[in-house]
Structures are given as C-alpha cells and as structure tokens.
Write a structure and sequence with these properties.
mainly alpha; 2 helices
Length: 122
C-alpha cells in the first residue's frame, strides 16, 4: 500500500497564479444533486459480448451445458434465453416488480421421450 505524499505547504496570502492552483467552480447549482442514471443496456445487436470465467464453478456450469454438443457461445445464449424468459414471466404475471430479479427455487422439465423410428416395434 502506497502512502499519500504530503501536500506542500503554501503560505497564506499568496495569490493563486496558475490554472492548476485555482479552485474549480461548482459544476452544478445543487452540490447534492445525483448524476442522471444511464440505462443499463446490452451491447448493440451484432456486437460481441465478452464473459469472463471467474471461477471453477462457472467453468463447470459452462462445461455441463456444452455436453449437449454446443459451443461456449451457444451455451451462453441458451442460458441467457432461459433466464430472460423466467424473469419476463415473473414480471408479466406480477409475481415480482419489473426490474427485480426473481428468486428461482425450482425448475420444470419435460420427461425425456426418445425419438422412435418407424422401424422400431414397441
């Protein structure tokens, strides 16, 4: 950890002569005014999205999805679509206010039904 350098002492009564030494004027009339919030938007359509694998758990999660034969990009798209549908459904049905991430406690899946070929007898 670096220590802050001591500020050199300036004698009282000395005129501020350089632009660097002059105090900056207030940017707004109300100093407690918060800056306007910029909407949190995804990158424009067609732009790439970068996702960092932060830990072994995230690596394992991605590996599980990729076991279906898709690549990493398709796995992220599938996960994004699934989560977006859950959020939108919760907000549309009024279970959660819009913008509040719902707590997901369970999922439902259809039972696996193998594809039967015409020449297979049951």
């Amino acid at each position: 950890m670096q220590r802050a350098r001591p500020v050199p002492h300036k004698p009282y009564g000395r005129a501020l002569t350089t632009e660097k030494e002059r105090p900056q004027s207030m940017a707004t009339a109300n100093p407690t005014q918060q800056p306007a919030k910029v909407p949190n938007l995804p990158p424009p359509v067609g732009r790439s999205l970068s996702v960092r694998i932060l830990d072994e758990g995230m690596y394992d999660d991605l590996r599980v999805i990729m076991q279906t034969g898709c690549d990493a990009s398709a796995a992220v798209r599938q996960a994004l679509l699934l989560l977006a549908n859950v959020y939108d459904g919760a907000w549309t049905r009024g279970h959660y206010p819009a913008g509040v991430a719902p707590e997901i406690v369970t999922t439902n899946i259809k039972p696996y039904r193998p594809v039967r070929q015409p020449d297979q007898d049951v």
